[in-house]
Amino acid sequence: MKKKCYFALLVCFGVSCQAGYAQESRPDNNKLLELYQAQQYREAAVYIRSFYPDTVADPAVLNRLGYCYRMAGDYAEAEPYYQQLYALDSLNVSVLMNLAVLHMRRGLYASAADYYQQTIAVDSNYVAAYRALSDLAKRNGDLAAAFNYLSTANNLQPTNSDIAYDFAQLCMDLERYGKADTVLQLALDSDPQHGLLLLGKISVAEKLKHYTEVVTLGEQLVKQGDLSRQVLSLLGRGYFHTQHFPNCEETYGQLLAIYKQMGEIDYYYLAMAYKAMKRYEEGLASMDKVLELAISPNTAFYYGRKADLHDLANQPSAAASDYLRSFQFEIIPLHYYSLAVLYDRKLSDTHNALRYFRRYLKQSPPEEEQIYVDYARRRIEELQ
């Protein structure tokens, strides 16, 4: 079967026997087949070029050389051959798409978009071009244009699962959940067990608060072997909202057994499930996890930097408040020192200055803060 495919390629990219070429001096198709099978596309291109002058204008030869260099990943080398083909026939969809892909691979997005636009101007039913234009529009932040391109592609091929899924995801980004649901359902009617479509459908059902459907879809996905974090998480939420609390606990237990950790919202639903089952101690343990995940490990540091900004803006009271709030999340010894200096120099509060200089010293500051330690000790003696 593979040999038949390669022979088909050779026929597709066959070299015409024009009068300018010697009949006996042409590439050996068997040798080219061997190079293609070994994926030695650059070597194949060099071999083909050895038979023709640099000024070759035969479309079949140009096509074959462009193909070889493109498959070898040498896009800059491939482009001149396709540009020659474009000059010969600017309405050739295959040439336009090859040029568009080459420019995409090289990050030349504006010119790639131009070639895709030329493609759909020639063939308004060319789905791959609409999908590519949608991706380019999203890259530029133009979600409205991306929506229109994917909508066209979806209308042309409504049962194409990849297009349906991508279009539904874009609809969800735009909060058009009803449209996403319709698109996915139409594709699922043709393939009710398609896992990717079911995954999109369960996500949409959760957004629409169709929790009975979430459970049905989640159970189907699990039965089909999808035990991904996303599926188990959504199924757990579905069980919670339909008041199947033991099933909710079991599903989250399965998620934890596989992935060892859950998201903040999932620990919350688990805590609430324990509450509904009057298992309060387990609920409290889950809520501790919620709070742990809800608070950034850098929160104390951020409050300290916010305090610095208040200080520089000559807002000492606000700075002191932020330093104090930072201690609710983590004890950073240097914040005690900064707070003490603030009370000492800007708020003229000797009592609190002494208090926080002492607290700073009790934290056993690291050696690199010795200069602050020495100052704190000296200032304590002076203030006393």
If helices are DSSP runs of H or I spanning 4 or more residues, what is the number of helices? 22
Query: Which radius of gyration do the C-alpha atoms yield?
Result: 33 Å
| Spatial separation of the terminal alpha carbons | 93 Å
Named at the architecture level, the CATH assignment of one domain is Alpha Horseshoe
State the helical fraction: over 70%
CATH class of one domain: Mainly Alpha
User: Segments where pLDDT lies below 50 for 5+ residues?
Assistant: 1-24
How would you summarize what this structure contains?
With 384 residues, this protein is an all-alpha fold. It contains 22 helices and no strands.
What labels describe this entry?
mainly alpha, Serine Threonine Protein Phosphatase 5, Tetratricopeptide repeat
Please explain how this structure is put together:
There is one protein chain. Among the domains are: 158-207, no CATH class; 209-294, Serine Threonine Protein Phosphatase 5, Tetratricopeptide repeat (Alpha Horseshoe); 299-383, Tetratricopeptide repeat domain (Serine Threonine Protein Phosphatase 5, Tetratricopeptide repeat), CATH 1.25.40. The radius of gyration is 33 Å and the shape is extended. It has helices spanning 2-12, 29-37, 41-49, 59-71, 75-88, 93-105, 109-122, 127-139, 143-156, 161-173, 177-190, 195-207, 211-223, 229-241, 245-259, 264-276, 280-294, 299-312, 316-326, 333-345, 350-362, 370-383. The termini are far apart. The longest helix is centred in the middle third of the chain and has 15 residues, at 245-259. With 384 residues, it is an all-alpha fold. Helix 19 (316-326) packs antiparallel against helix 20 (333-345) and helix 20 (333-345) runs antiparallel to helix 21. It is 74% helix and 0% strand.
